[in-house]
Request: fold
Amino acid sequence: MPADRMMHLAFSAHLTGSHPAGWRHPSTQMNADTDIAAYRRLAQLAERGKLDMFFMADTPALRIDKLGAWSRYPLFTNVLEPMTALAAIAGATEFIGLGGTATTSFNEPYNVARQFASLDHVSGGRAAWNVVTTANNYAARNFGHAALAPHAERYERAGEFVAVVKQLWDTWEDDAFVHDREAAIFYDQDKLHPVTHEGKFFKVHGGLNIERTPQGQPVIVQAGASSAGKELAAATADVVFGSAPTIERARDYYADLKSRMANYGRPPSELKLLAGMPIVVGESMQEAEDKHRSLQELLHPDVARQRLAMDLEADLSGLDYDQPIPEDRIPTAANLHTAYFAEIVRMIRSEKLTLRQLAMRYERGTRSLRGTPKHIADTLEEWFTTGAADGFMFALHLQPAGLEDVVKHVVPELQRRGLFRRDYTGRTLREHLGLVRPENRHVQKVAPSAA
Amino acid sequence: MNADGKMRIGYLMNNTGVHPASWLHPDAPPHTGNSIEYYTDLAQTAERAKLDLLFRADTPAARTRDLEAWSRYPLFMNVLEPLTLLSALAGATSHIGLGGTATTSFSEPYNIARQFASLDRLSGGRAGWNVVTSANEYVALNFGLDELPPHDERYERAREFVDLVTKLWDTWEDGAFIRDRGLGLTFDPAKQHRVEHKGRFFTLDGALNIERSVQGRPVIIQAGQSEAGRALAAETAEVVFASADTFAKAKAFHDDLKGRMARFGRAPDELKILLSLSVVVGETQQEAEDRFQALQELTHISVSLRFLSGDLETDLSDLPLDEPVPEHRIPKSSNLHQKFWAEIVETIRRDRPTLRQLATSYSRGRNTLRGTVTQIADLMEEWFRGGAADGFMMSFQVQPSGLDDFCSLVVPELQRRGLFRTEYTGGTLREHLGLRRPANRHVSALAAE
Reply:
């Protein structure tokens, strides 16, 4: 490990905070989810903290049943769409990476390739695409399907989708557009490489109508924890968001993922694993705990039960709130978020919690890290230096207060320790992440003989 | 004619200009490519002139054959994608409408509904969606097809697509998001309306995950001039881009389209017809002619020929340049832009030009008006006051000079004549155009009581 290795920091931009009750907290702006000015302020704040990436999670669907619970829990209920929002944020920022989710299950490769390429140009090389297969049936029903395709099929489609998009991004060699007015030649025909793809899911014969992007290709992000997800990430991802709940499991995941990369001829350094890390910063340990508890207490019981039911993929209605969830209500396998599902099952079986206890204790993904800036920096440093992560994807319970804490208190502590940049040294997201600008596949082939 | 007696003016913002040789002209920047700063300058110039709408045409395809011609004429070969471009421009402007093309043939209604709703929200109510069915075989090949579906089928799909998108835009009533912290309630469940749609092309059971847009819904734009296109526009469009080379044709189109609206319970002023008009301004008419001619002469013959072949829908490149186009080479009918096709066929039969003459003189849509400020303003006034259009969709042969000339010379003349606004009086595109904010279909009945 090089001595000057720096961690990479991204954060998920839920505008009132990642906690389901964040919007009820007096410090948050209640209508921020659709207020572009709030998005811009948040991105600018993160840029002052020299963070690598502003990230927007997404799902193309509204939850239209169980309104008693969902009307109390704004989970993608009323949000700006990522491509439009990120393009609108680009002009208000200069350095920070702009990542967003787009699903491979309900889009066409050409449209996704084009919008991210365009975002990369508009932002001067700061675009990242989080490849997801979408894990909710509400989305499926918005696109003509009764339910999601099975997990394995979604991943097979995702693999083909990403391959087509990356080919489209290499339609033009970097110097294809010569703009030669004397000869009336706008581009060099030899540097145009149309895609010829016929696969199980897609047939594409054509070229992308936008030049190669500042980053060569936008950064590819993934978050899959399943075996199929890890395989796809090892083959194609530049960044992976991890979701391991403990440092031990994070190390296993890190080693597993990076070891799979050799099968695809990729060195481990070509992929940056950012561990998902919900954090709550306090002046004292007690203050951080209090901040967390006060939010948990704002959780409506219907919301707590609903988010558990959603990730356990089970119907929990009619169950006694003060008894454990009976074994026969636990599904045998997950079709949606494998990691969330496994975590709940583990908590049920090993901790024997009542439904109420489980509902109040469950946090989507990793259990939040709560403490002083020093305590948090200690933990991040341990994860970073012992093979559990290349950096972190923060989820912040409240916004913008959570990000303010990171920028004012956590980042300076990490900088003092030499673990995080004091200023940007590049302009593109790839440069921030220490990722090479990929060669165009059509140039690589001819390079040896030309030289 | 608009109630306030003023014309509406849109602006077709393409890269270096609409002329195929514009990129060769010294007035155009040599490498506009995809510089957001360049587009920001154009958008701000148009906004300073108080124009209603900045519009971005589009096709989701690169032309990958006939490269001898296309490499000399970069038509949509290297362009920013409209939704991302318009979103980026939203932050650099405050009033001007932001319209863009998205195809109904190769998109999903949910994604289109969402992206335009998001653009409307983040621009403060300035979004417009130009509904097209895509008339370009290259597009089909990018989306798993071997060729475009037939014209009528594309329009049938477009109609269902638009219907579904407008339903999704009414998912939420205005005021649905009450955000009551005390009650812990973000929205009123009674004001969320699920869409259940089962049609020939689409099945959807869901709802949009963004609140009702600032404009109620984004403005719907169309440009089809075929029978199917007019029928769709009369039913659903709020702005129509028309093209005609004579006052009589423009007036006939205007009257026909507006006359069809009553069938759908719509009043004529619920739709604004903007006539496509490309201008070249000169100090004298001769100077304007010379400027245009200079561009024509910059055009490579293979480009002229390709352009003509494209709109005639047949490849003419094997024919001798100095003889007329033989009758048997004219296709029997059009599957793409019917109007352009018909104009070329008419010229071949009426004037019998040589292929070279035909190719070098052909300029799509024909409305390149060359003249002085007074001549241009006179024509716009005459057509507007004569009821041939509610306004104009301007394009320029070369940018940024063409836009600059129009905004600094022609717009002030129109303002002096009282034909165009001197300040924005509203904040949204609907307000600029004089279109009312539509009621949500789920509350309109109640509101009327």
